[in-house]
Amino acid sequence: MWNKELTNYALTNSGLAIRNSQSEMRQFPRIMLVDMNSFFASVEQQANPFWRGQPLGVCVSLHATSTLIATSKEAKALGIKTGTSIYKAKKICPEIVVVEAEPEKYREVNRRINQIFGDYTDRVESYSIDESFLELRNNPPQPSLTLREGVAAVKPPLNVRGGRGSYKNPLEVGAEIKKRIKAEVGEWLTCSVGISSNKFLAKLAADMPARHASQGEAGGENTSDNMTVIWREHLPEIYRRKKLTELWGLSRGWAKRLVRLGILTPLDLMNYPVANLIAVFGKSGFWLWQRVNGLEIDKLRISDYGLEEESAIRNSQSDNPKSFGNSWVLNFRSRDKEKLKSVILRLAEKAARRMRGEGQVARGLYLSIRLTSGEHLGQSKKLAGPIETGLELYEQVMVIWKSWQLQSEAMHIAVGFTNLSPRVNQLKLKLNCGLTDYGLNPKSAIRNLPGLGQESLQKCLDTINDKYGEFTIRSGLLTRSSDYAPDSIAFGR
Amino acid sequence: MLEQINQPIEVAAHFGLHQVRPLKFVWRGREYRVQKVNLTWSRWEGRTKFYYFAVSDNANYYKLQFNSESLAWTLLESYVE
Question: Is-contact A40 A107, C-beta < 8 A?
Fold first, then answer.
């Protein structure tokens, strides 16, 4: 029944889409993606003008085996991309500048850029530290009424810099945003702007190379500092030049499944009967077809304006997080399992804060460690009940940790939550549930809270750390752990 | 070459509307004029807010830090071409 209803909706929608294409030609697509180019590296070059124009890489740790988490366009042109080890980068270019990341610098720049966006629309989704989606109005919006001291005041609509007034089309807005970022935030900062009818195509547009870009360079096509509009009528021509795995969110696994259906290219996917996709892949197939055809399916997750309802809608779509974890390439080498425990706890606390921020709980976990010998130890586990704190994850993971023997020094640790589901009610912290106490004082406040309740304590801890910074208040086990797994910005969301 | 300094300095700054601009600073008895403020940002350490200024003249880059609790300025690093 559900499938039939969904099929009817999709067919109706596609019919509407075809009929609308004529009228849409008079209307600009209104979803914009602003994607800062080589963001971390560009911010470092903005700060130090003597690094501009030079190959530069940003890392979390200056250890030779660490990887670069961002590279400048000059480095990319030499083939040094995100994920290249420092050792390999210096082999390619001995003069490359390598700097340690300063996340608060990038967050500040991100905040200022998002303030500019707020002058054009109140519908902004800060998708990641360097990408934001904007939903612009296509027609001059109606002025809104506010009631102040019993007197109705007409508030003119948004869409103009520095105030309210006449309407601008998305191309004008995009050009103005680019100019203002340079003038008001930093002259070295550039961005790619993609405009289209949904987030998926706006991303595709932002990733398209500049019109007269040179090709065949070691770093690939130049996709920086451009602005591209994709109209739905042009999709066949655009998809003819693309591979399935070049589409946003389409993994190799997905591509293989589509190939089994005879869908070899994005054009094949666009033209494939949606009813068949639904029959094979269910909801995911429907959403994929909608996205590829430029039909709106993903609501913007509005930053700072978020409604509970919109967050819930997002969680019901296909982009739910599957896990929350943290990993760290150690800036020291050790086989001391006691010392490494505090690293694990710190990583667990970080992952837990992010997961709680998304309103999720977990019924699974994983722990993995890579040793200098090349050996890799890893285990995942399903849990009988949900957990949501770093301490709970740590306690569960210690059971696995106890059984491991480290034949050589640890160089990388990863720990995280899996089997996620939305938090329905506040959970009671389940500590020491038949597990051995691994150094945690059974008389400590976190376990024995007359009156207050453990869940209220966790909320208080989160509020303090939100206001004053990560680990401002923390477990005593983490007293000397500030150098472990330092502040960082997650890739993507 | 980037060098870590971490030494106290004296700074003359302009407090404008919603912004602070270091104009010059004195380090080891020598005066350095700031030609450009390239980037500013801040971070909390506990209850203290630190402000950072990436500044340059025509030959060098400097990173200055202002401690809003103690009102002290520090030259954190310098880069000389």
Answer: no
B39/A50 touch (CB, cutoff 8 Å), yes or no: no
Test A47 with B46 for CB contact under 8 angstroms.
Answer: no
| A211-265 tens-digit pLDDT | 433 333 344 456 678 999 999 899 999 999 899 988 988 888 889 999 999 999 9
Contact residues on chain B for A49, CB-CB shorter than 8 A: 36, 38, 56, 61
End-to-end CA distance of chain A, in Å?
35
The structure tokens listed for A42 are 């560009």
CA distance B51 to chain A (A): 11
Nearest-Cα distance to chain B for A46, in Å, is 6
Domain segments of chain B: what residues? Answer: 2-79
Question: So what's the pLDDT on residue B79?
Answer: 93
Sign of CA dihedral A359, A363, A364, A365: positive
Q: List C-alpha distances in Å: A331 to A48, A62, A72, A336, B57.
A: 26, 8, 24, 14, 34
Strand order in the sheet with A227-229: A124-128, A131-135, A31-36, A191-196, A227-229
Question: What pLDDT shows up at residue A6?
Answer: 37
Q: Is A95 on the interface with B (CB under 8 A)?
A: no
Residue A439 · residue A339 · CB < 8 Å: no
Query: Strand, helix or coil at A24?
Result: helix
Q: What's the confidence (pLDDT) of residue A331?
A: 67
Residue of B nearest to A472 (CA): B46
Residues in chain B: 81
pTM score of the predicted model: 0.69
pLDDT confidence bin for A412, thresholds 50/70/90: confident
A72 and A41 Cβ atoms separated by less than 8 Å: yes
- B-chain CB neighbours of A46 within 8 Å are 38-39, 54
The answer to ipTM > 0.90 is yes
